């Protein structure tokens, strides 16, 4: 994760000289979105829920608050707050707010003029990346997250390419963002965090649902095509195949 994020962000920041919206990145994001949809509901969600048996105890007919599901919902809401903070930073910098910014992971980068705004954007994605790293990890999820991380890092690299930051500051920001997902993965490996698996998986669930429903779906619906639907479905079906054979 670190290598993919660092190389993509740093090379893009230093060698991209003009803004180009490459279709391939849009389709890669949609493909990873299909993979993440399967992962969220098949791999992560079961780990956040307690097993309910309605026949053993009549009291179970009344569902109590599930801490894992609650944590996932709160993580989703917190990421929405971070997105709003970024949007507010843009309003403060430019004096107006473009509500049509919905491209995958890159909303608002077209008119970036404020260095503070770019830093807020990267910090937002870095927190987001940390949450991506926590929770149960398997081959299919790791593959999907690598694709998403690569596209996300590309958008960060573009924003840094036009930021007029010094090379040392660009390097620092790239490293900061690149270590967050591995840090999340390392965090959940410690034995003492085993009892908090519901919390970690809840945060992972909220983060993945945020990627799907806030970052990917709006971009797809903005310019919906049969190809986008096919690519998204291919990502979903690919994950099923990976889970079947691995």
TrEMBL record:
Keyword field contains Protease: no
MF annotations from Gene Ontology: zinc ion transmembrane transporter activity
Signal sequence annotation: none
Membrane topology: Multi-pass membrane protein
Pfam families hit by this protein: Zip
Main location class: membrane
Cellular compartments per GO CC: membrane
TM spans (from-to): 27-45, 65-82, 198-218, 224-245
Entry keywords, A to Z: Membrane, Transmembrane, Transmembrane helix
PANTHER family on file: PROTEIN ZNTC-RELATED, ZINC/IRON TRANSPORTER
Protein name: Zinc/iron permease
